[in-house]
Design a protein that fits this description.
Length: about 80
């Protein structure tokens, strides 16, 4: 669990980029419902691992998590015919 000051930092640094995260997920998955699920999962991952974020570009950090989550999501949902 994050300390209160880290939760505030997360809210200030990461949450403003949720629109970018949603746009990226929609572009990658081409499915609005799936992209919403992916952004939710990616945001939870970002929150869980925020202690490992040591500064820098929070937007780029979040978008990398979204990309990785999209790849994982596609791997789970893409099935051969």
């Amino acid at each position: 669990m994050l300390e209160p000051q880290d939760r505030i930092r997360f809210e200030q640094l990461v949450l403003p980029h949720l629109d970018s995260a949603a746009n990226l997920a929609r572009w990658m998955l081409r499915n609005r419902a799936d992209s919403e699920d992916v952004v939710q999962e990616a945001t939870l991952r970002a929150f869980r691992f925020f202690g490992r974020f040591h500064g820098g570009d929070a937007r780029a950090w979040l978008l990398q998590i979204v990309r990785n989550t999209c790849y994982t999501w596609r791997g789970k949902t893409d099935r051969p015919n």
